[in-house]
Each structure stands twice: as C-alpha cells, then as structure tokens.
Amino acid sequence: MKNFIIRIINVCVIVAALFGYNKVTLAHEQADAEAKAEADRQNAEIAAQSGESGGSYKDGTYQGTATGFGGDITVEVTIADGKITDVEILSAEKEDSAYLTMAKDIIPEILDAQSADVDTISGATFSSTGIKNATAQALEEGGAN
Amino acid sequence: MKQPNKKTMKKIHVLVRAVIQLLYFLFIPSAYTAAFNGVKYIFTKMGTRAHLEVTSFVAALIVLCVYTVVFGRFFCGFACAFGSLGDAVRALYVFICKKMKKKPITMKAAVVKKLQVVKYFVLAIIAVACYTGVYSKAKGFSPWDVFSMLHARNFKLGGYTLGVVLLVLIVVGMCFQERFFCRVLCPMGAVFSILPVLPLSTLRRDRSECIKGCRACTMKCPADIELAPDTAPELSGDCFQCQKCIDTCPKGNIHTGIRSLKGNEIWYTVLRAVILLVLFKIIGL
Predict the structure, then answer these.
(1) B34 burial class (0-12, 13-18, 19+ CB within 10 angstroms)?
(2) What interface predicted TM-score (ipTM) does this complex get?
(3) Same domain, A47 and A84
(4) Are residues A105 and A34 in the same domain?
(5) Does the distance separating the beta carbons of B233 and A1 come in below 8 Å?
(6) What is the pLDDT along chain B (285 residues), one digit of tens a residue?
(7) What are the b/e assignments for B123-146, b being 16+ CB within 10 Å?
(8) With an 8 Å Cβ cutoff, are A7 and B285 in contact?
(9) Are residues A88 and A107 located together in one domain of the fold?
(10) In this structure, what CATH number is given to the domain that contains residue A91?
(11) Which terminus of chain B has fewer CB atoms gathered within 10 Å of its CB, N or C?
C-alpha cells in the first residue's frame, strides 16, 4: 500500500507541475500575441499607405497531391484577393486519423505565412509534410512567385 | 450445460487474448506511438517555453495513463501493437524450435531484471533530446517510425537504415525473451510502470494456500514477477495483465482485489477491451 500512495503523490506532483507550467506560459503567450497583433496592425497601415494590394497569387481553387505517411494526400487551396484563404484536405485515405488531426495544425501556419514554406509538425512529420508539399504543388499552379 | 474443464478454459482464455490482440494490431496499431508522441510533445514544447495544448497525442497519453491506473497495464497486455508483435515473434520462435526439436533460448531472469532499468534511460534520453530540440533534427533512427511505415505498407525506407537495424535487433531480442521490448526498452512502459494501479486491479495470491515451494506463476510470468500475498497486495509496475498466471496456478490462488473476481473471466476481459476501444474512438484514434 505504501508504494501505491507514493506513486499517487508522484503523479499528483507531475500533474500539478504541468498545470503550473501551462498557466505561466499561457500568460506569456497572451502578452506575445497582443504585441504581435499590434505589430500586424501597424504593418497593415504602412502597406495600405504605400498602396500595396495584398498577395501575389491568382484567384481560384487549386489542387495538389503529395505523399504523406501511407499514401497520397490531396489538398484544395483557395485563393481570394491574391491571398491563400483556405487549405482543405480532400483525401488522405491512408493516413492515421490521430496523426492527420495533429498534422492539420500546419494549415493555420500556412495561412499565416501565406506560403507552403513552413515548419512541419513534430510527431506528425510525414502527414504534415504531405499537406505542405501538396499545398506547394497547388500554389505552383496558382502562380506563386 | 457441463462446465468445461480447466484445460479447455485455459485454451479459451488464450484464444480470447489472441483475438483481441490481433484485432487491435490490425485496426488500432498507432495507440502506443500516439501516446508516446504526447510525451515527446510535452518535452518539445517545454524546450521552447511554449504553452501546452491537449492535442490528439496528449489526449491519447492521458487516456492511456488513466486507463492504466484503473485497470493496470491491460493496454500493454492486450492492445499494444508492439507488445503483440513481441508475443507473436516469441511464439513463432518457440514453435520453430519445437519443430526442429531444439530447446528455445531464453534469457536469464536475473539478467533481464537488471536490464529493465534501461527503459528509464531510453525515456530520459528521448525526453532530453526533445527538450533540447535535437530529436526533431535527428532523422531515420526511430524503430517505431519504421514499424509504423511497414504497418501502413509504406516500404520507402530510404534514409531509415539505423531505424531498420534497431527494429531488427528488437525483433531478435523478442525471440529470446517474452516481452523483451516491453520490459527492457519501451519508454512508454517506463511511464506506465511508475503509475499507481488501483488495488482493485492488482493481482495477488493466497500465499498460505500455495503448494510448498511452487513457483508456477513466476515461471509462467513474462515479467518474472513474484506476486505479492493478499495480506500485503503490491503490484509490480511490470505486470502486463497478460493473465497467464491465473490459469497456471494449480490451486487457483490468484485473484484481483475482489476475491471472487479472478481477473481472467471472459466477460471481464472483453469488457475492458471494449472500454478501451470506446475511449480510443472518443479521442479519434
């Protein structure tokens, strides 16, 4: 029984440490996000003043296919006003669902960067590389510079 | 209806376990790697001081840990693809030896017991590698990636030489010791074996009822565990809940925290397997 109680205390300490860690980092990240939003707003103003008109892609929807983990992943990229507005996974039959869910985290990054040249998701490297390469292929069709 | 005899029941229990293992192996092979990716995710994020989120990997980790606290390492014994692979490899090796009329080689229990600490080092090394960011840069060494790729019938293994070599070595180890990988190398096993298990699910034996000097359960145990007496129940973190000891005991002395529940009743085994399946489906594995 002694062993059991020690183990319970151990687990409680680890869980508490993780929660504490998360609380601290969350506060930091919120501060960072606010700073970033402010910077973005200023950049947008500068861009508006100098009369730039957003992205450099041709409007439309484009498809691309690349190898993921177990097979091909096909995505559809939507370009509106010269910008990437959406990346949708059309088919990824051979991908493991848990990994694909993780790999989808790469999509907001692609939208953020307005490019397929982003870091892959660690732990779901194959599937996210698949999405990335498929997006790159679609963007080539969409006249990426 | 006549109650089937002990030998028949034993065969049925072995069959039930084999069927559950096979189904999990075929349909949910990635639970183990997904949960371990949760561990890696936590350390990787901590390395960059980033906020942790409950991703599908972390969810798999939490679900498996909670499940293990409640039921013991039933996942390891019945649902882990790597564990099942080990059981199959060992069974095949023993079968071949039998056909060739040779005695199968088995590692000495004392040696394996010493080697068991290696898995904690494996866990620590991977954790440090993730924390420092080395892990994501090192490519092609992971035997689990190779295994997952083979399972997904993806045979483009270029650049995975080290991973392939490690996987082959692990399979060789699996031949000579039942549950070699789980006991010696599995970093997820290191996590599980430091978790508490509810007294309800810990196996114990009525020591006073034992035949003097009998070690049948320990001999049968893939982890060479000497079960605790029910006067002081304490379960080794290395028990995979394979349930082999329960049928092996000539006196039927082994049971769970509830005296009337042996722990290998078919309904109870199937119930635990179904609960695990439902949990996996909820988190989308």
Answers:
(1) buried
(2) 0.80
(3) no
(4) no
(5) yes
(6) 556 788 898 999 999 999 999 999 999 988 998 999 999 999 988 988 888 888 888 999 999 999 999 999 999 999 999 999 999 999 999 999 999 999 999 999 999 999 999 999 999 999 999 999 888 777 788 898 888 888 878 787 878 889 999 999 999 999 999 999 999 999 999 999 999 999 888 899 888 889 988 999 999 999 999 888 877 777 778 899 999 999 999 988 999 988 889 999 999 999 999 999 999 999 877
(7) beebbebbbeeebbeeeeebbbbb
(8) no
(9) yes
(10) 3.90.1010.20
(11) N
Please tell me whether residues A46 and A73 are part of one structural domain.
Answer: no
Separation CA B215–CA B226 (nearest Å):
8
Do A72 and A7 share a domain, yes or no? no
Name the residue among B41, B135, B284 with its Cβ closest to that of A97.
B284
Q: Give the predicted TM-score (pTM) of the model.
A: 0.85
Range of the domain at A27: 1-52
Please report, to the nearest 10 degrees, the dihedral formed by the alpha carbons of residues B181, B182, B187, B193 taken in order: -160
Q: Are A45 and A64 within one domain?
A: no
Residues of chain A with C-beta less than 8 angstroms from the C-beta of B34? 96, 98-99
DSSP assigned state of B75: I
Q: Are residues A92 and A45 in the same domain?
A: no
Could you tell me if A92 and A100 are in contact, meaning their C-beta atoms sit under 8 angstroms apart?
A: yes
- Cross-chain residue pair B51–A69, CB shorter than 8 Å: no
* Residue carrying the six token digits 């069927």: B19
Number of structural domains, chain A? 2
